[in-house]
């Protein structure tokens, strides 16, 4: 395939590396996007239809969130890009003044819509709303994301599950490269919106390396590591992450898609990833599961009915400052407000955890004080345990 070195347009982001861990690949950065600066490592909560389920934009802002996700598939279907464009993009529609990242819509389509078909043209599917056949092409995906006005747009990629093997993985990898070129060409706002490429190649090191070689020759503002976190063995997952970060350019942000469990975050920060997203913290909150440093706490369980402690006595979030486990337990039986309170706690937990990572990496680099060396040792051991 011929190399299309795209014309260099100054990308609307800058990445300043504040500190790098001397032992692992962990790094603390300041990522400046059109709607303000974001410290990385960062966890990005996932909104769906322009709303964060169970939390308002003001609450999200107050928790320190500086970037969140919007789903192109849902927003593109309803209310549709025209209305959102009229409302001054997704920022105006949601009244969210911080940064937004939108996905391509492809993943939702393949995972949510049973009758979808991938061809060279794009992803064909039947609308779940009116049954009409729709084609999501790379151009269409970028056109919707241009209307949404997100700070970071994702290329449309050919998604296959990480447990799939054989020629389909290779086909999807090559197609994702071709679709990246079509997305780059279709972007009407390269000076305002950052387009990220998505590295594919399944669990095959050769394919992933080939994808890295090709995609990093394109002048895109950032890269995502895709096609992982889909039920593969942890060893395979970590190997593919570290292979990717080994070959991604140091001066550009690296986004590991669909990863949000605490242990995965720690290891993947040590492996050099900067950005993460996952529906898990908000989805699990709606089932009454609160994230805590020792795992999770199921608020609905009988044992909390008379427990007057907060979810986590050390947590500084509004839920833990105001409400007890017993209150949330009682509320869960009668009111959806319990889900909102737990969602706030879970997002706060994730945002604070990545902020701590940022601080640790800076301290490891500059002060090398004892607690930091312990954390450094922890990062190092995580990497060793992953047998890398
Ligand atoms: Zn809390």
UniProtKB/TrEMBL annotation:
Gene Ontology terms describing biological process: tRNA modification
Main location: cytoplasm
Pfam families listed in its UniProt record: TGT (PF01702)
Binding residues annotated for Zn(2+), in chain numbering: 315, 317, 320, 345
Chain positions recorded as substrate binding sites: 103-107, 157, 200, 227
Region span, RNA binding: 258-264, 282-286
Requisite cofactors: Zn(2+)
Entry membrane topology: Peripheral membrane protein
This protein's GO CC annotations: cytosol; mitochondrial outer membrane
Alphabetic keyword roster: Cytoplasm, Glycosyltransferase, Membrane, Metal-binding, Mitochondrion, Mitochondrion outer membrane, Transferase, tRNA processing, Zinc
Enzyme class (EC, first level): transferase
SUPFAM superfamilies: tRNA-guanine transglycosylase (SSF51713)
Catalyses which reaction(s): guanosine(34) in tRNA + queuine = queuosine(34) in tRNA + guanine
Active site: 103 (proton acceptor), 277 (nucleophile)
Gene Ontology molecular function, alphabetical: metal ion binding; tRNA-guanosine(34) queuine transglycosylase activity
Enzyme Commission number(s) from the entry: 2.4.2.64
Compartments in which it is found: Cytoplasm; Mitochondrion outer membrane
Sequence ranges assigned to domain tRNA-guanine(15) transglycosylase-like in this UniProt record: 24-352
Xref: InterPro entries: TGT, TGT-like_sf, tRNA_ribo_trans-like
NCBIfam families, per database record: Q_tRNA_tgt (TIGR00430), tgt_general (TIGR00449)
Protein family (similarity comment): Belongs to the queuine tRNA-ribosyltransferase family.
Subunit structure: Heterodimer of a catalytic subunit QTRT1 and an accessory subunit QTRT2.
Described purpose of this protein according to its UniProt entry: Catalytic subunit of the queuine tRNA-ribosyltransferase (TGT) that catalyzes the base-exchange of a guanine (G) residue with queuine (Q) at position 34 (anticodon wobble position) in tRNAs with GU(N) anticodons (tRNA-Asp, -Asn, -His and -Tyr), resulting in the hypermodified nucleoside queuosine (7-(((4,5-cis-dihydroxy-2-cyclopenten-1-yl)amino)methyl)-7-deazaguanosine). Catalysis occurs through a double-displacement mechanism. The nucleophile active site attacks the C1' of nucleotide 34 to detach the guanine base from the RNA, forming a covalent enzyme-RNA intermediate.
HAMAP family according to UniProt: Q_tRNA_Tgt (MF_00168)
Name of the protein described by the UniProt record: Queuine tRNA-ribosyltransferase catalytic subunit 1
Provenance organism: Salarias fasciatus
Organism placement in taxonomy: Eukaryota, Metazoa, Chordata, Craniata, Vertebrata
Primary gene name: qtrt1
């Amino acid at each position: 395939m011929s190399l299309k070195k795209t014309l260099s347009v100054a990308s609307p982001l800058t990445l300043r590396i504040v500190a790098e861990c001397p032992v692992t690949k962990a790094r603390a950065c300041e990522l400046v996007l059109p709607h303000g600066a974001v410290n990385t490592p960062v966890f990005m909560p996932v909104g769906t239809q322009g709303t964060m389920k169970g939390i308002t934009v003001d609450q999200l802002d107050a928790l320190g969130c500086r970037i969140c996700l919007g789903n192109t598939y849902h927003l593109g279907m309803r209310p549709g890009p025209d209305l959102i464009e009229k409302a001054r993009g997704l920022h105006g529609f949601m009244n969210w003044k911080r940064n937004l990242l939108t996905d391509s819509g492809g993943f939702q389509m393949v995972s949510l819509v049973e009758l979808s078909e991938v061809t060279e043209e794009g992803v064909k599917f039947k609308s779940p709303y009116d049954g009409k056949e729709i084609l999501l092409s790379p151009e269409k995906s970028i056109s919707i994301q241009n209307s949404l006005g997100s700070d970071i747009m994702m290329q449309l990629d050919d998604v296959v599950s990480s447990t799939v093997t054989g020629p389909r993985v290779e086909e999807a990898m090559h197609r994702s490269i071709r679709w990246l070129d079509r997305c780059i060409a279709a972007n009407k706002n390269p000076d305002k919106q950052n387009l990220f490429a998505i590295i594919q190649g399944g669990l095959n090191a050769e394919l992933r390396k080939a994808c890295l070689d090709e995609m990093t020759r394109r002048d895109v503002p950032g890269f995502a590591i895709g096609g992982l976190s889909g039920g593969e063995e942890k060893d395979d997952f970590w190997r593919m992450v570290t292979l990717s970060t080994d070959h991604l350019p140091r001066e550009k942000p690296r986004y590991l898609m669909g990863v949000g469990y605490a242990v995965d975050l720690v290891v993947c920060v040590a492996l050099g990833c900067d950005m993460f997203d996952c529906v898990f913290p908000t989805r699990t909150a709606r089932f009454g599961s609160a994230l805590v440093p020792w795992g999770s706490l199921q608020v609905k369980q009988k044992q909390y009915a008379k427990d007057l402690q907060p979810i986590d006595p050390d947590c500084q979030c509004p839920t833990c400052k105001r409400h007890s486990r017993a209150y949330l337990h009682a509320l869960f039986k009668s009111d959806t407000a319990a889900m909102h309170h737990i969602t706030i706690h879970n997002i706060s937990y994730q945002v604070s955890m990545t902020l701590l990572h940022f601080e640790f990496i800076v301290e490891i680099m500059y002060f090398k004080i004892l607690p930091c060396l312990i954390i450094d040792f922890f990062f190092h051991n995580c990497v060793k345990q992953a047998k890398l």
